[in-house]
Amino acid sequence: MKRLLNSLCNLNLLLNKKFDVPIFRVHSSNISVIKTPVDFYETLKNLSDQSTKRICISSLYIGTDHLEKDLVESFYQAKSKSPDLNLTILLDYNRATRETPKSDQSNGPTSSKSILLPLINQGANVNFYLTHLTSRHYGLWRRPKWNELISLHHMKLYIFDNNIIISGANLSDTYFTNRQDRYILIRDSPTLCDYFDQLIQTIGQFSLKLNTTGDFQLHDNWHYDPRKFFHRYLFKINAHKAIKNLNKDFSAKTTFNHHNINDDVVDTIVFPLLQMKSLKIRDEEKFTSCLFENQWPKSTRLNIATGYFNLIQKYQKKLTENSCLSPPTTILMASEEANGFYEGNGLLRYVPYVYTYYVRKFLQRINKLSNPKQISIRYYDRPKWSFHGKGIWLQTPEYYLTMVGSTNFGYRSVYRDNEAQLVIITKNERLKETFQSEFVDLVHHSRTIRNWQTDLPRIPFLIPFISNIFRSLF
């Protein structure tokens, strides 16, 4: 473990205080990979049924079909069985209040808000994050779906007592059936769960609170309304301070002397990375940039997954200029058919072509390298499945590093949305093999894209124009 932490020192990332994040020690035996959407759903249900102290959820939204309703019902039952259980849910305001028409008109349209309303009477704390950036465009962006372009709360964190699932998956039926994502379960880790619990509570404090009448209100100790134009500056300053104070507090609690660690006791460490550009929090961007540009040993293997390919130019540049990686870097992404917007309604059906355009431009960039085989592009292409997985797998001679969470490493993730990642670094052989097997399983359902002219579909003529002008929205 000393070598592991010294390697972090060599990266000049954490222990030189480039940015302040807490570092947690976790037993490798408590970390496992959930492989399928069905297993993800069953694990959520089982953990919910077993919870007696807390259920703390952060997601983009909760769907409104029967699987989601059964999950919400399990939250309700857990609270009924254990009245002292702390039930907290944090969603994105714009996405979670968007109504979904139902075929049964007697019930009318539903939304995350409507199916969560019964929990309020049970004493649940349900909050909806709305970015202060909305106040600048409120008259222009009231329309559902369009208002989601500005910024979203995108963190996917699922806490049950002292167990947590870190994922990129939302709580919706497609994510429980045939949309592949990543899901890491960490059991019996109270301090780590406390951190993410308090992160969700902290963001909830400057979000809009749902009350028993179905209306929204500010929390009593928060005075800056994200919907008001003249509140936006104070909202940003005070929200930034609240998140930074949280990290500072936990950094102090989890500080340990890395020169006096027994290797037999600690073989795995984890630390969170937040990306909230609108609040001037950019820890994930800084870390990822350093990761891509570091001069690794020749045997190091780097793999990346991004559900929607739109790597920011800084990441692309660092990846293509880093020639020290002797095995090729594999980048796994969704094919057009595996894109969540495939065959969408209206203009949404063109979204997969936008990502195809970005892939084409990146392939053209790769082809100009002295060694084009340095980077391998693969399309997840599984019949009747979509792909939403994202993350990084880095295997060095000494340890294995993986990043798991909500970010796609694209423009939206870096510059617009609220994202949360967890970095896991281990030297445990079993866990190394588990992470490597996870990536191999994902790649099994993919094909290599070599030539943008022959391996990619034709792009409608307006797509390049739209893709370049509105790149930050994707």
UniProtKB/TrEMBL annotation:
It comes from Dermatophagoides pteronyssinus (European house dust mite). Its EC number is 2.7.8.5. Functions in the biosynthesis of the anionic phospholipids phosphatidylglycerol and cardiolipin. Belongs to the CDP-alcohol phosphatidyltransferase class-II family. This is CDP-diacylglycerol--glycerol-3-phosphate 3-phosphatidyltransferase. Signal peptide: none annotated. Pfam families: PLDc_2. Pathway: Phospholipid metabolism; phosphatidylglycerol biosynthesis; phosphatidylglycerol from CDP-diacylglycerol: step 1/2. InterPro entries: PGS1 (IPR016270), PLD-like_dom (IPR025202), PLipase_D/transphosphatidylase (IPR001736).
